[in-house]
Amino acid sequence: MSALRIILGDQLSEQISSLNGTVLETDVILMCEVMAETTYVKHHKKKIAFIFSAMRHFAENLRSKGYQVEYFQLDIETPLRSFTQAIEKALAVRAADHIIVTEPGEYRVLTELECWTEIFELPVFIRPDTRFLCDHAEFESWSYGRKSLRMEYFYREMRKKYSVLMEDDQPVGGQWNFDSDNRKSPQPTLEVPDTYYNAPDAVTQKVLDLVEAQFPNHMGDTSQFHFAVTAVEAKAALKKFIEERLPYFGDFQDAMIQGQPWMYHAHIGLYLNVGLLLPLDCIAAAEQAYRSQKAPLNAVEGFIRQILGWREFVRGIYWQKMPDYSALNFFEGDRDLPGFYWDADTKMNCLHQSVTETIENAYAHHIQRLMVLGNFALLAGIDPRQVNDWFLSVYADAFEWVELPNVTGMALFADGGLLASKPYASGGTYINKMSNYCKGCSYKVNQKSGPDACPFNYLYWDFLDRNREKLGNNHRVGMMYKVYDRMADDKKQAIYYDS
Ligand code: DLZ
Ligand code: SF4
After folding, report:
1. Pocket test for ligand 1, best of 51, 74, 214 (most atoms within 8 A of CB)
2. Is 340-498 assigned to CATH 3.40.50.1820?
3. Best substitution site from 429, 446, 456 to test ligand 2's pocket, by max atoms within 8 Å of Cβ?
4. Less packed terminus of the chain by CB within 10 Å, N or C?
């Protein structure tokens, strides 16, 4: 008996279920750099480099522990077109009588591997991904019969299940959620610590050269590559966050400062999503910081909610609603994504800064993604498929199970309210409150119409007006319709023409 065990590029954990029970003498681990996976959306150069380097380091680590690893590096002359082709190539040189794989993070990949039994005439065992804290059956039973799915209630169940920030059966501090403490406006003089920096080693340097040569038309460049690429390094990045940023994470969670791409966010999403960090380790480290009085409760609870609540919740929704979820378009957006999402060439300073930082770092923080980049796409009525493809390709942490619900559900409200209770739509005022971008902008944030008006302002009112039938009954938006209806007709006309 010998197994071919497949490890995908986002399954780089020694605890991954596909490795359970490996017989070192007979079993073969297969990992492969697949051209089609790098180009089905044009991933950012730093994202491809991160994944390839982390994969190569992971393979080396497995070899050092006695595993037999078949690793296919990207072959430019005869690139692999799919995971299926990689298995075919592996089976040509390594005999196996069954295949073992952990369920993938994308529906597209699941449909591919569900064909393997027929193609290879071998039993294929698809194991659950036990790195997640809520499995599919548990999410089904939690969501069964509920009219709407709200993360808050799911999160409370998870807090109890894992006994996180609990005192007996009550939440520490007497409440579940401290978000109301987390809305401080930014002070441009804040001294934000540097993000984790890891100098590329020889393996990473080889990958960076490969990516620069082979993907010239993809976003970004490979200079200043500083990501962790092993589990040990990712743990160091987590430690740096817990010690230096976590204490302020809550206070400035929604703040944006020009020239400060990292703020007090964790920047560990990419490590969690490829498996270099495990969720419970991150949660335990944050809770420990609170228990030892190194970080306040509002910060620790907010951070833990992202991992134990939001991350698991969006994964549950993704697998429950796919494949239909990827086609949802509640507002029937049909405009093309503007070119400035790729080159930052826009006079709107908030968008210019957010896209510039995305190009440089394959990263932008949550509030830039939601209230600047997502908000603009929502208000302007951009086709959700194009917006999703963009988010999936440009961020190093983006894998479809997490990207799609965040963009389609949260940023675009394209699911009509399955995941969020109202659209996260706002005019320039909110961006001005939470950032210093407007000071350096060609547009005037206080003007509602005319050539100098902040485009977010007229797009906001136009968005409400053209979607009245769909949003008029939403009591959380109702107030804004009253404001719009009181506006003079000439103002409404100007908004319409500017949009
Ligand atoms: C995103 C990505 C990229 C760029 N390249 C690879 C690759 O070469 N090999 C691989 O195994 N996985 C890659 N991935 C991740 C996959 O596209 C996909 O997101 C995951 O397999 C889903 O579980
Ligand atoms: Fe963005 Fe409007 Fe502010 Fe300019 S004025 S930075 S477009 S919100």
Report:
1. 51
2. no
3. 456
4. N
Of 437, 442, 452, 458, best ligand 2 pocket probe by most atoms within 8 Å of the beta carbon: 437
Q: Where are the domains of the chain?
A: 3-127, 136-195+245-321, 340-498
Does pTM surpass 0.90? yes
pLDDT by position in tens, the chain (length 499): 799 999 999 999 999 999 999 999 999 999 999 999 999 999 999 999 999 999 999 999 999 999 999 999 998 888 999 999 999 999 999 989 999 999 999 999 999 999 999 999 999 999 999 999 999 999 999 999 988 889 999 999 999 999 999 999 999 999 999 987 767 777 767 788 889 999 999 999 999 999 999 999 999 999 999 999 999 999 999 999 999 999 998 888 888 999 999 999 999 999 999 999 999 999 999 999 999 999 999 999 999 999 999 999 999 999 999 999 999 999 999 999 999 999 999 999 999 999 999 999 999 999 999 999 999 999 999 999 999 999 999 999 999 999 999 999 999 999 999 999 899 999 999 999 999 999 989 999 999 888 999 999 999 999 999 999 998 788 888 788 788 788 877 777 777 777 7
Q: Hey, which bits of 319-454 come out as E strands? A: none
Residue among 16, 11, 18 at smallest CA distance from 37: 11
| CATH classification (class only), 3-127 | alpha beta
| Pocket residues: Cβ below 6 A from ligand 2 | 348-350, 428, 431-432, 437-438, 441, 443, 445, 454-456
> By alpha-carbon position, which residue is closest to atom 13 of ligand 1?
9
- Please compute, for residue 5, the number of CA atoms within 13 A of its CA located in the half-sphere on the CB side: 26
Instruction: Report residue 286: phi and psi, to 5°.
Output: -70, -45
317 vs 142: CA distance, rounded Å = 11
Architecture per CATH, domain 136-195+245-321, reads as: Alpha Horseshoe (1.25)
How far does residue 442's CA lie from ligand 2's centre (Å)? Answer: 8
- State both tokens at 221: 């460049």
Omega cis (within 30) before 323: yes
Q: How far is the CA of 32 from the centre of ligand 1 (A)?
A: 9
